[in-house]
Design brief:
mainly alpha
Length: about 90
């Protein structure tokens, strides 16, 4: 690393993270999140709960909790309405 820094001040580009384990689980997670959209807010699944369900229902699939958390975070952002802002009219 020292030789790299001496030869070039800019660090080399990093490889993008690959999540091959998540491939077969995406449809399972997506169905859970779609069902949660209709459920009351307090009854929706957290990323940890989804991960625990994967471990219980599909023990042959080995996936890390952080991988599920990252995917759920991105998917929830896609599912929510972004950019809609409500401004309350001032009362006179």
């Amino acid at each position: 690393m020292v030789r790299q820094a001496l030869s070039d001040a800019n660090p080399p580009e990093r490889k993008p993270s690959q999540r091959p384990v998540l491939g077969p689980l995406k449809s399972f997670v997506d169905t859970i999140l779609e069902a949660d959209r209709k459920a009351p807010r307090k009854q929706r699944h957290t990323a940890r709960r989804i991960w625990n369900r994967i471990r219980a229902e599909m023990p042959d699939q080995r996936v890390g909790e952080s991988t599920i958390r990252e995917y759920v975070r991105k998917k929830k952002r896609q599912l929510t309405v972004a950019g809609v802002v409500f401004v309350r009219k001032p009362m006179n």
